[in-house]
Amino acid sequence: PLTPEEKQETVARIKELLKEKDAVLVAHYYTDPDIQALAEETGGCVADSLEMARFGRDHPAKKLIVAGVRFMGETAKILTPNKQVLMPTLDAECSLDLGCPPDKFAEFCDQHPDRTVVVYANTSAAVKARADWVVTSSMALELVDHLDAKGEKILWAPDKHLGGYIARETGADMLLWQGACVVHDEFKAKALNDMKALHPDAAILVHPESPENIVAMADAVGSTSQLIKASQELPNDTFIVATDKGIFYKMQQLQPNKTFIEAPTAGNGATCRSCAHCPWMAMNGLKAIEQALETGGKEHEIHVDPELGKKAMVPLDRMLAFAA
Ligand code: 13P
Ligand code: SF4
């Protein structure tokens, strides 16, 4: 970790570089609070994955620095092929993306040609290129409802929990790829029940990548932005939050007098894999942002094959138009 002096120097240098290079910082709610604060201070954005995509597409800067995970950088590049898209690290993956290899996914689609292919944004450019629609958790429910009303049967990938939640809510015919998020998959219902008993007046906020028995206990289910909104709108003073703990920065900033508690990730207090913090989101740091801006080097720049990018842009544009 940086000393306070080093942090101050790094932040000051990043601010200079953003101006000098005509760049803007686009950060996810799960990144380090210092990165979120910097994005806000410098006219960038802190957002959920849908808003990140829209902001990156519409902002006039020549370069985008995307602090998040790889699919977020790739989405930005697909939507704005003429901008340079840099990331603090290209090693920031996502278990949903990794769990859905494009060749296996194409086989799955080929076996079910009668189904409309809807994929979550947490996928590679190649998987998106095979899809009819891309969705994020903030608008997936509405889109599937819309497709179901037209009588369409859905092939869904990759998150089984989000897909299962949408199928239960909409009643749509959905065939699910069996992927999961390593962070949300760890929340434990029994321990959450015990925690709720200790805080009977708390509201439970749940990201829909969580297992069914966690979603069943929720007072609000939604994307990161929607959960932040729920924390402002619900009258409770205390919230138990089942998503990555990076989100606490924004929740606490907007509601300084409310109390936010992490939902439990292991029923018996034993070690868990991710403990409510995405290991890949955690790879984003101030020094890496500085380096990305300073060098613009190949270890930071996102490239998407232009032909693949053109194909992937179609369902992404549909997503943004539907969500508008
Ligand atoms: P949001 O679209 O809700 O920000 O989710 C992205 C994500 O990766 C959640 O784990
Ligand atoms: Fe992927 Fe889960 Fe990390 Fe989100 S929290 S980026 S879904 S691994």
Automatic annotation (TrEMBL):
<keyword id="KW-0004">4Fe-4S</keyword>
<comment type="pathway">
    <text>Cofactor biosynthesis; NAD(+) biosynthesis; quinolinate from iminoaspartate: step 1/1.</text>
</comment>
<dbReference type="GO" id="GO:0046872">
    <property type="term" value="F:metal ion binding"/>
</dbReference>
<keyword id="KW-0408">Iron</keyword>
<keyword id="KW-0411">Iron-sulfur</keyword>
<feature type="binding site">
    <location>
        <position position="224"/>
    </location>
    <ligand>
        <name>iminosuccinate</name>
    </ligand>
</feature>
<keyword id="KW-0808">Transferase</keyword>
<feature type="binding site">
    <location>
        <position position="28"/>
    </location>
    <ligand>
        <name>iminosuccinate</name>
    </ligand>
</feature>
<keyword id="KW-0662">Pyridine nucleotide biosynthesis</keyword>
<feature type="binding site">
    <location>
        <position position="181"/>
    </location>
    <ligand>
        <name>[4Fe-4S] cluster</name>
    </ligand>
</feature>
<feature type="binding site">
    <location>
        <position position="94"/>
    </location>
    <ligand>
        <name>[4Fe-4S] cluster</name>
    </ligand>
</feature>
<feature type="binding site">
    <location>
        <begin position="120"/>
        <end position="122"/>
    </location>
    <ligand>
        <name>iminosuccinate</name>
    </ligand>
</feature>
<comment type="similarity">
    <text>Belongs to the quinolinate synthase family. Type 1 subfamily.</text>
</comment>
<feature type="binding site">
    <location>
        <position position="278"/>
    </location>
    <ligand>
        <name>[4Fe-4S] cluster</name>
    </ligand>
</feature>
<dbReference type="GO" id="GO:0034628">
    <property type="term" value="P:'de novo' NAD+ biosynthetic process from L-aspartate"/>
</dbReference>
<feature type="binding site">
    <location>
        <position position="137"/>
    </location>
    <ligand>
        <name>iminosuccinate</name>
    </ligand>
</feature>
<dbReference type="Pfam" id="PF02445">
    <property type="entry name" value="NadA"/>
</dbReference>
<protein>
    <recommendedName>
        <fullName>Quinolinate synthase</fullName>
        <ecNumber>2.5.1.72</ecNumber>
    </recommendedName>
</protein>
<dbReference type="GO" id="GO:0005829">
    <property type="term" value="C:cytosol"/>
</dbReference>
<dbReference type="GO" id="GO:0051539">
    <property type="term" value="F:4 iron, 4 sulfur cluster binding"/>
</dbReference>
<dbReference type="GO" id="GO:0008987">
    <property type="term" value="F:quinolinate synthetase A activity"/>
</dbReference>
<feature type="binding site">
    <location>
        <position position="49"/>
    </location>
    <ligand>
        <name>iminosuccinate</name>
    </ligand>
</feature>
<dbReference type="InterPro" id="IPR023513">
    <property type="entry name" value="Quinolinate_synth_A_type1"/>
</dbReference>
<keyword id="KW-0963">Cytoplasm</keyword>
<feature type="binding site">
    <location>
        <begin position="207"/>
        <end position="209"/>
    </location>
    <ligand>
        <name>iminosuccinate</name>
    </ligand>
</feature>
<keyword id="KW-0479">Metal-binding</keyword>
<dbReference type="InterPro" id="IPR036094">
    <property type="entry name" value="NadA_sf"/>
</dbReference>
<comment type="function">
    <text>Catalyzes the condensation of iminoaspartate with dihydroxyacetone phosphate to form quinolinate.</text>
</comment>
<dbReference type="InterPro" id="IPR003473">
    <property type="entry name" value="NadA"/>
</dbReference>
